[in-house]
Design goal:
heterodimer; A: mainly alpha; three-stranded antiparallel β-sheet; B: alpha/beta; five-stranded mixed β-sheet; two-stranded parallel ribbon; 20% helix; 24% strand; elongated
């Protein structure tokens, strides 16, 4: 018996021919790895014996950069974490700042934020679930839902002018009010999307091929998931109903009625179903929030930021015409304002799990230390355990169903 | 009865006496520290105790305080009790010359990469970690970039000639 066989733990019947394992570098920049992850797989035929993950190919030192930047300039860094749902990162970062600075936001701002965050969650789940479809060989769903992600991006575009890395939040609220066209597009989305989602579900959830590809692939028990630090849909698929929106409500989530879908087996199929159901819940929340926003009349309907001139940029037309506004604008942009001393941990329910911001301020202009708790980074270490003993084709689908985003993984 | 910060503090003091110090609640989160030799004992106690049950490690990272002689590096654990929904923060300080801290990987699988990241950026040597190597940076790196002795370039510096970098210069 050679070393290879002992190393790979394969028990061979007496007299059989010697087996050899193959080392396969899956990625980086392989289409199936959704970004730049490297997986060094040891294969026995098509069965995975061990997997080692290497990350860091697009590490951009966000935490270090944040130490030299005033609070506003960090917004652009957070956008580039989970770029599939960047508004959630934006809002999470500004909520962290608001907690540190003691800024209280008006209700209308909270509701608008909820609308945006849930739209972002839908667009994130949409991509994740349709990619699970693509990886199991069904391209149709992906093509079909893409136009509705486009519609969500058009809503962003109406609000802030950009689509992917939106940079739309500000400390205390939004950069500008939602335009009537943004609301029109939102209405269009609310009207058309349920039918699309229904059809998307029909395409996959009882599809024999899809079920056989995903059921039993990459399962994890509730206990292991908790020990691995799973959060978000991946944890809920394992049967734990932990949701930051319920446990630590922020931005008026306590005003809304919604359910937390949970699975039982924690396999790829359950993760898919949990995400699908979450999209329905997000639609429910958006509808409620939209009703609440519409209930504001007169001057109240124009509020889109808190009244905090120390942190909120003055209006551009004032900057051009009024000396005071120009001074404040300059002071805020150049980070001339010291932030209070303290340390804050603020979690939000990102589209793929608990996204936390740990901010330590020593009273200077910039954070002394900023750490992002990035859910992807925490999921990916369980990858070996999830794929051990599975087939190579399962490894691909496990990866896509974990909703790993390279930008967030590497920060 | 819901778990309160007061009660957690009392239990910790009962168990560890004056070894656990620095209780405070900045922005509403209970924070305390213990000597670094005790970090596993404290974590184990918080994990096992039938009342406390802090079984979820939310986050683990380090902070560098270069002026804190003998306590330059702080390793910060964010723990979460999901049953009672209480979060808390636990810190251990270590000197930078000998940054050995016991690894929490045996208790929490999630600590594995978080400790690797902390080692990668701050050089905290987690004793007992199964695979303590860099995770985001290249293996050949021989320094720890998040320490304060490697500051980013000051954006207001004036000694640099921008023309050498293809920007600035005269517009006339």
């Amino acid at each position: 018996m050679s070393d290879v066989i002992q190393h790979s733990n394969i028990r061979l019947p007496e007299g059989s021919i010697e087996k050899q394992t193959t080392t396969l570098n899956l990625g980086p920049t392989h289409p199936a790895t959704h970004g730049v992850f490297q997986n060094i797989l040891e294969l026995d035929g098509e069965r995975i014996i061990s997997a080692e993950q290497t990350v860091g190919y697009i590490h951009r030192a966000f935490e270090k950069l944040a130490e030299r930047r005033p609070l506003y300039q960090i917004t652009t860094l957070t956008d580039r974490l989970n770029y599939c749902s960047s508004p959630i990162n934006n809002m999470g970062w500004h909520l962290t700042c608001e907690k540190l600075l003691g800024v209280k936001t008006p209700k209308r701002v909270d509701y608008l934020r909820v609308i945006i965050m849930e739209l972002a969650r839908i667009s994130d789940h949409l991509i994740c679930n349709s990619i699970v479809g693509v990886d199991s060989g069904a391209y149709t769903g992906f093509l079909y839902v893409m136009q509705y992600r486009e519609l969500i991006y058009e809503i962003y575009e109406e609000i802030c002018g950009s689509r992917l890395t939106t940079n739309m939040g500000r400390i205390g609220g939004f950069e500008r009010n939602f335009t009537p066209l943004a609301f029109e597009k939102l209405e269009k989305f609310l009207k058309e999307y349920p039918a699309v989602l229904k059809e998307f579900e029909n395409l996959f959830s009882r599809n024999r091929i899809f079920m056989e590809r995903t059921m039993g692939a990459g399962p994890i028990s509730a206990e292991r998931a908790l020990n691995y630090g799973f959060t978000g849909p991946n944890l809920r698929a394992a049967g734990v109903d932990y949701d930051v929106r319920i446990h630590t409500p922020y931005s008026s989530y306590e005003d809304f009625e919604f359910d937390v879908p949970v699975g039982s087996t924690g396999d790829c199929y359950d993760r898919f179903l949990v995400r699908n159901q979450e999209m329905w819940q997000s639609l429910r929340i958006i509808e409620q929030a939209y009703q609440k926003v519409q209930a504001f009349k007169g001057a109240d309907a124009e509020i889109f930021h808190a009244d905090v001139p120390e942190y909120y940029l003055p209006e551009k037309k004032d900057v051009y015409t009024k000396m005071e506004a120009l001074i404040w604008h300059f002071k805020i942009i150049m980070g001339e304002i010291d932030i209070p001393k303290g340390e804050v941990y603020f979690p939000v329910e990102g589209a793929n799990g608990e996204l936390g911001f740990y901010l330590i301020s020593d009273g200077g202009r910039t954070p002394y230390r900023l750490h992002f708790r990035r859910p992807c980074f925490i999921y990916y270490q369980a990858y070996e355990e999830l794929t051990k003993g599975a087939m190579l084709s399962d490894a691909i689908i496990v990866m896509s169903s974990l909703n790993l985003i390279a930008g967030e993984l590497d920060a | 009865m819901a778990l309160t910060y007061e009660h957690i503090k009392q239990r910790l003091v009962e168990k560890f006496g004056d070894q656990v110090t620095g209780f405070e609640e900045p922005y509403g989160m209970l924070t305390f520290e213990a000597p670094k030799e005790l970090n596993l004992k404290v974590l184990q106690f918080l994990y096992d105790d039938a009342e406390l049950q802090f079984r979820f490690l939310t986050d683990l990272q380090a902070v560098h305080y270069p002026d804190n002689t003998g306590r330059e590096l702080a390793v910060v654990y964010h723990l979460h009790n999901l049953a009672d929904n209480i979060r808390m923060r636990f810190k251990v300080y270590t000197e930078i010359g000998k940054p050995d801290v016991y690894s929490a990987t045996a208790l929490y699988a999630s600590a594995n990469w978080m400790e690797r990241e902390t080692y990668d950026f701050f050089g905290v040597n987690f004793v007992g970690h199964p695979n303590l190597k860099r995770v985001l940076n290249v293996d050949e790196m021989d320094y720890f970039p998040m320490r304060k002795e490697f500051p980013l370039e000051d954006q207001t510096r004036i000694d640099k000639d921008d023309e050498m970098f293809g920007r600035g210069g005269s517009i006339i």
